[in-house]
């Protein structure tokens, strides 16, 4: 693992840039724990001040320090994206492995569920949930709903990989070596699936954070918990752009873009590095 | 207890291709019967062109494909009745496969000894005495390798010939009575091929293992097999003693195969006429 | 050392069609900071005469695929030509296709030089009908009216016993044998002087294989082309080639008329290769060769065969044996055969 990270750092510029971007964003989110103000209190600082040495990112019209508000917001947003990615990865992995390996009616049943989730349009469903639940909708619930919609496409991807692995002779060697189905899946096939899992995790986070921002900007989430989208929502409510309070919108936007680009670069570089085909670079076949 | 090691009775396999509207049935194996006697190890070659059904037949014997009709009995046990992991292990304890492509036989991301140790742990628990490592080493010695040579190696670090030997050693660790080898030498380099083929003979003579050797190569089949089965389009067209069938083929299909086999010898004249005149 | 190859022989045209001199083709890679050079072809010299089928035999790591790639000019990184030259009679002065200007190469391909590969799908475009492949590749070189061209194609297809109807078929609609015959027709319709055949029949069934080999021989005789025929199958070599070169670990070890190689192999590797082949009707047990082909990233010093050689002596691990004339048209690179002054 250490060697792996060292190689990545040494040979992949994308990885270095992505790592710096994500590290900056993570550092910002960690700082939330040291905030002098609670996230939901308003008018704790003078409103509408531009960035200065005292208030690095300025203050909002609601009397909040943008820097500390942003650190809460990015923490919540990353947590949200991470939760969606984790839950949906677990579902995608389980469904993809079982469906691809078992085949037959199990495959058909799982894939019909899978395809149902692929074709349901997500945004109207989320808006519908909001109108039914109104204020009872928490970020965790939203995360779970999004996780429900975030696994289907990747499960298909994993299934197709496992289906082709199943046809390969080493799967038969494993079975005739006395391995159980579980062992074949976790020991033999999982290493081929991990790269997919990695790159889709990052992609999934980018997707879910983007969707959360969209919903929050539209006001379809719990606006009292600071998120990136929530900040932009409040800024819009106070017509920040018209009033010239540009720093209220600019800093959250920059932060989320940094997170997007950082995650994307990590996904691309890690994927290229751990792809079994590039790892299997070898001498013997080059005749 | 049972005088037949393997009893294949009238098995057929039909694959259905196409969807709802255009169903096409392909008969891969058509009513094939064959027997191997217990206690009298032999090498049975199954010969045919691609599409003759020889690989499907092998996969049915390995219980990787279920026949559409007919029965397969191994040591008296009906393959269709095998269920549960205990049943599967008992079955694999008697039959082990060798595959065509040695580079594909092992997971490229794993060390090869993993499969050897796993096989030993699963099948030879009763053998006792020696540790797993010594047992693996002993099996590797039977195929002309040692644990020192292959231990800690990944498949791409070994040659095709070495990998195929490891595959055979792995099969031996299960202490099987029957090995089904599907084109085991077709992807092995010429200079290593004959050693692998010779190894099969050693397994038969010294370990008493029967071998089903599936191939399209008549010369190696003639060289090692005792009995031969010629398949064409899913059916057995000729069978019998290997030497008799190949030196005096009766069925037109066998004759055609025999004539088409390019033998590594200069016949004198024929296709090489121009070659010889040119060089002199 | 080329004197032996280029000497006049009988009534044939003396000028060889392809002369390969001391070719070195390495794969140079840098992965995770480690630089490696795989010396896949390391000092190979031979000549292909006009109107002959020159066989090249070797195992999977012998470098024969790299040699073919180099001759065909298919040189992409990490493969590099490190030294030597490949001179075609119809492309003088460049020392290899890779050094000639692309426009020049374009004119030569199909007209003077064509290929028959193992997977004919590489040549036949899978989403276009066979007719389109013929028009794409051959029409620019043949010219004339479309009707004339079509007639010529149909006439040529009949030589490989294909019905004109295959022209309207897609490659996947044909059987493997028919596809390979179509590829053969495509490769020979311009009557090229030189054909590179890389394992053209390996994927075919034995009966079809013999048929296709017969056709290759027939067309070659008719057009007087030279063929560089590469396969690992000694049976195929015995059947079709006129002269045969044996390659081991990136170098040629022996070259002679095919019949001579089979009757009187001199190099210990060739001897073992020939002796280990089972033959129908012969029951004598055959012994294989110990060891394994070397890793070309780190080949043995001196003669690359010496760790496996029964005749190995002290000099073999020190010096590289050169190809020497050991009989009429019979070259071999071995100290045990040529004597220690071989270097």
UniProtKB/TrEMBL annotation, chain A:
Alphabetic keyword roster: Membrane, Transmembrane, Transmembrane helix, Transport
Domain of life, per lineage: Bacteria
Segments forming domain ABC transmembrane type-1: 74-267
Topology in membrane: Multi-pass membrane protein
A GO cellular component annotation in the UniProt record: plasma membrane
Principal location listed in the UniProt entry: membrane
Family, as annotated: Belongs to the binding-protein-dependent transport system permease family.
Protein name: Peptide ABC transporter
TrEMBL record, chain B:
Keyword line: ATP-binding, Nucleotide-binding
Signal sequence, start to end: none
Matches recorded under InterPro entries: AAA+_ATPase, ABC_transporter-like_ATP-bd, ABC_transporter-like_CS, P-loop_NTPase
Top-level division of the source organism's lineage: Bacteria
Boundaries of every ABC transporter domain copy: 6-258
Coiled coil: none
One Pfam family, short name: ABC_tran
GO molecular function, one term: ATP binding
Described function: Involved in beta-(1-->2)glucan export. Transmembrane domains (TMD) form a pore in the inner membrane and the ATP-binding domain (NBD) is responsible for energy generation.
Family of the protein in this entry: Belongs to the ABC transporter superfamily.
Name this polypeptide is given: ABC transporter ATP-binding protein
From TrEMBL, chain C:
Gene3D superfamilies reported for this sequence: P-loop containing nucleotide triphosphate hydrolases
Keywords assigned: ATP-binding, Nucleotide-binding, Transport
GO BP field: peptide transport
Residues of the ABC transporter domain: 20-274
Domain of life: Bacteria
Predominant localisation class: membrane
Protein topology in the membrane: Peripheral membrane protein
An example Gene Ontology CC term for this record: plasma membrane
Single GO MF descriptor: ATP hydrolysis activity
Xref: InterPro entries: AAA+_ATPase, ABC_transporter-like_ATP-bd, ABC_transporter-like_CS, Oligopep_ABC_C, P-loop_NTPase
Keyword Protein transport tagged: no
Cellular localisation: Cell inner membrane
Role of this protein: Involved in beta-(1-->2)glucan export. Transmembrane domains (TMD) form a pore in the inner membrane and the ATP-binding domain (NBD) is responsible for energy generation.
Recorded family membership: Belongs to the ABC transporter superfamily.
Protein name: ABC transporter
Species name: Bradyrhizobium manausense
Source species taxonomy: Bacteria, Pseudomonadati, Pseudomonadota, Alphaproteobacteria, Hyphomicrobiales
